[in-house]
Amino acid sequence: MKELINELSQHSANLPNIDARVFLEFKYPEIRELLKHFLTLISAALMFSVAFAEKIVNFETASNVQKGLLIGSWGTLIIALGCCGIGLYTIYLSAEKAFAQMAGQTGLDFSSIVGTSYIFQDLSGILFGISMCLLVFAAIAGKF
Question: Rounded to two decimals, what is the model's pTM?
Fold first, then answer.
């Protein structure tokens, strides 16, 4: 039992390095790939909605509400794209700090940057959902 306690106490002194290692080996690659795919999805949604804007809303007969909803959808997609890019960049910065922490540099805490990245990632997802709702509302607003 004493050996187990000694082993646990030795490991608890290295917990920041264990956290950094788990982050670098599992969380960072998964989050990075997720964000790259989400960036592609947002870009594709923006390009398709711009390319097929005339099919969504007939600009000649559309009301100002429909046009506003469509433009609002594009605006939120652009902001979502930016937030996703910032999330991708900040997750990269946190990986750099985690690697430096594993290399023995003290005073570095990557978890605060990870939290910031999560905020931008979540904001990007929320904005994407809002933009898709605005796009649907723009399409059905002309029906009423």
Answer: 0.82
